[in-house]
Amino acid sequence: MTFRRFLPLCLPCLILSAGEVREEILVVVNGHIITRRVFQQAVEQASAALYREFSGPGLDAKLRGARERTLQGLVDSYVLEDKAADLGVVVSDEMLRGYVEDVKRQNNFNSDADFELALKSGMGIGLQAYMVRSRQDLMKQEVLRREVFSKVAVEEQELLAYYQEHRADFQVPGRFRVRELVLPKGVTPEEQADTRSKLAEIAEALKQGKPFEALVEQYSSAPSRSTGGDLGWLAKGVLRTDLEAAVLVLKPGQVSAPVETDKDVHLFQMAESELNKVKPFADVREEIRGKLQEPRAQSAIEAYLQGLRIRANIRYMVPKETILKG
Question: What DSSP state is assigned to residue 278?
Fold first, then answer.
């Protein structure tokens, strides 16, 4: 492993200029320094995350080891960062931006401004600092992927078995595409009789094999008439409950019975349905591999990190026991 060059430090502090002491240095890892301020911030963030996830005795147990886990995490972060440099790991701007966009999408942030506001509130950092940190994290993940995960074998039959047992986990969110034909229900007896007559004509035309789209163009009073009644892809829950209930029982090509609302009568034709669609095995194979590799890789990761620590130049400028006591 290639170590970065650094100047010998005789005091556990960072001298910025003659007589000026700004930061107390706790640990030096190769050419990197861990200051008390950085360590304390990391401990506070780790503790806040534990408070959100645990409570009671479980929380107390987690908090007792938080300082040691945080310190070790900071040290390991730097040895992995140096290993990434040795391996020539590069995270392109495009990859980084794609990762950040995925995080935004998963957390329902529509703009960088909203995302940055949440970052400052939750982590105390801005978007640029988050991107720097994310690039470093992605590089470390790639090191572990190459050096550890890629060497943890998972048989193809194990992947297939997991897929079959957890098909519900890979379901595509339900959606459907329908066409509508809308007739005004009418107010007067004459208007209502006219509507019933048109419904009978439509039913007969459908029996004769006339395309639903053609009947929409001939009879429908809705704005969707110009597109053959096509409403496009709809997620479950978008339509009114009574209308959706009539639609969801249809198979592609089928037309519903008339559904009355306050002012109109609706007919629906199911165009396409993805209500119970499951992602193909080929699309989720690597995702499953990661799920199965992760628990098996934990001991291998610890052994790998221990090897990096042994080869690294790690110096505690303040005794470790003192750092952990706070």
Answer: B
Q: Which two tokens stand for residue 164?
A: 């079959």
Residues 6+ apart with CB under 8 A from 26: 12, 34, 35, 36, 39, 316, 317, 318, 323
pLDDT digits (tens, 9 = 90+) for 52-62: 888 888 888 88
Opening angle at CA 129, ends 125 and 131, nearest 5: 120
Identify the structural domains of the chain with CATH numbers, from first to last: 90-142 (no CATH), 175-273 (3.10.50.40)
- Mean pLDDT, the chain, as a whole number? 88
Instruction: Give the tens place of pLDDT for each residue, 102-148.
Output: 898 888 888 999 999 999 887 788 999 999 999 999 999 999 989 99
Q: Measure the CA angle with vertex 196, ends 195 and 199; round to 5°.
A: 90
Rounded to an integer, the average pLDDT of 75-98 is 95
Q: What is the pTM of this model?
A: 0.55
Nearest partner of 179 among 142, 122, 249, 234, judged by Cα: 234
CA–CA distance, 281 with 210 (Å, rounded to integer): 39
Alpha-carbon gap, residue 301 to 193, rounded angstroms:
76
In total, the chain counts a number of residues equal to 326
E-strand stretches of the chain: 13-17, 20-29, 32-35, 175-184, 230-235, 259-260, 264-273, 314-316
How many Cα atoms occupy the beta-carbon half-sphere of 91 within 13 Å?
21
Question: Residue 217: is it exposed, middle or buried by C-beta count within 10 angstroms (0-12/13-18/19+)?
Answer: middle
